[in-house]
Design goal:
6% strand, 7 strands, 5-stranded antiparallel beta sheet, 394 residues, 17 helices, mainly alpha
């Protein structure tokens, strides 16, 4: 998700980062067509897609050069909440009130949550992308970096054509092949899109009804729990046990309250056993959140922590929450220094994922662990002091 306005999150777990393409594309394409036919995809669907089953080196260049996720949460949220997404989101909820009520009955995902994704992914349909999806998918399925993943998506793109949901020529989306107003990859489209307007087609490019119903259904597939919260801004004390502030650590709200965590307005947290994690997106001097179980659905939608926090925070704002407290004096090192931190952590044996200057979940976990070992506040955020200590080998 999220390639229409921003790059796909890094997928280092199955990507060959430094690979080179050596095979002939035409030979690859002939093999692909034979496999598609063996899978039952019709000659008509292959013929419809044929003009777009071509190689586009520009797409490979984009995939190799992703940089959007190098932004901090504050930078990303400032950018993505601008441009009218808050008032436009509220207007969409009002415009489609009956549809959202139906979706809530069917799937139980709040209108603000769906609308936040809708706004971030395509500006409510205005910015769905400009690339031909079949061409992008064919290129990335041929490319050596993530061929198996995109090969599956290309098969499903052909099935979308065969099913009659979309025509090949109208499949215009992101550079990575995502389609529709909430940017579904073709396999997600095939598995989770619903015909909510009853016209016999699942059209996520043009039908707001299909977009709302399909997004709700997909979020339930990702683990959304009806009636439960997702993210809540809080205040944290200066003496919080910082090593506990991580998505991998859950405590009851009563435990966080005992440690001095309070609601953003200063009122006490509920003294109950609801499991939550404290998340510090830019370390202990910036904003703080309680992440609930439903936040995992955001991370499954897009495994970038900053994107997921931005989407969840936007949903809060659309739902009526005030602007967050940005904190003050948040330490920041440069993009190149962040890459150096990753390199030094890898030398110490940590799995930081892709060394790209982007502080993903793996990098944050590694930073937190080494901070504990170096007796630094373990908030998972890199500082100049941490970099100096790592350079010194201590």
């Amino acid at each position: 998700m999220a390639a229409a306005l921003i790059a796909l999150a890094p997928t280092a777990g199955f990507a060959q980062e430094n690979c080179r393409n050596s095979g002939n594309f035409e030979h690859w394409l002939a093999d692909f067509k034979r496999e598609a036919a063996a899978k039952g995809i019709s000659p008509a669907a292959l013929a419809a897609a044929a003009p777009y089953l071509v190689l586009d080196q520009r797409i490979i260049g984009i995939d190799r050069g992703q940089r959007f996720f190098a932004q901090t949460f504050l930078e990303m949220s400032d950018k993505m909440l601008a441009g009218g997404r808050l008032p436009n989101g509220a207007a969409k909820i009002k415009q489609h009130q009956a549809l959202f009520a139906r979706e809530d009955k069917d799937f139980g995902v709040p209108a603000a949550v769906i609308t936040a994704f809708w706004g971030l992914e395509s500006d409510f349909g205005v910015g769905q992308g400009k690339d031909q999806a079949i061409k992008s998918l064919a290129t990335l399925a041929y490319d050596c970096r993530r061929p198996d993943m995109f090969r599956g998506h290309l098969f499903d793109a052909l099935r979308i054509i065969e099913r009659g949901d979309l025509r090949a020529e109208e499949m215009i989306g992101s550079w990575a092949g995502e389609l529709g107003q909430t940017q579904f990859m073709p396999s997600e489209y095939m598995a989770h899109a619903v015909d909510y307007d009853g016209d016999g087609k699942r059209n996520l490019i043009r039908s707001a009804s299909d977009v709302i119903g399909s997004t709700g259904k997909y979020l339930v597939h990702l683990g959304w729990k009806r009636g439960e919260p997702w993210l809540q801004e809080v205040r944290v004390p200066a003496n919080l046990p910082w090593k506990e502030a991580d998505l991998s650590v859950q405590h009851p709200r009563s435990k966080w309250a005992a440690w001095g965590v309070a609601l953003a307005n200063g009122k006490p947290l509920p003294n109950d056993n609801v499991p939550t994690s404290v998340v510090l997106p830019v370390g202990r001097f910036g904003p703080a959140f309680l992440a609930y179980d439903n936040f995992q659905a955001y991370l499954k939608w897009n495994n970038s922590l900053n994107y997921s926090l931005t989407a969840a925070y936007l949903a809060n704002r659309i739902d009526g929450a005030p602007p967050l407290n940005k904190g003050g004096n948040v330490p920041k090192i440069t993009f190149e220094e962040q890459k150096e931190v990753q390199q030094l952590l890898e030398k110490r044996g940590y799995d930081v994922g892709r060394i790209d200057g982007v502080l993903g979940l793996k990098s944050r976990v590694a930073i937190r662990d080494v901070q504990i070992k170096l007796n630094l506040p373990a908030d998972g955020w890199p500082t100049a002091e941490l970099l100096t200590r790592l350079r010194g080998g201590r």
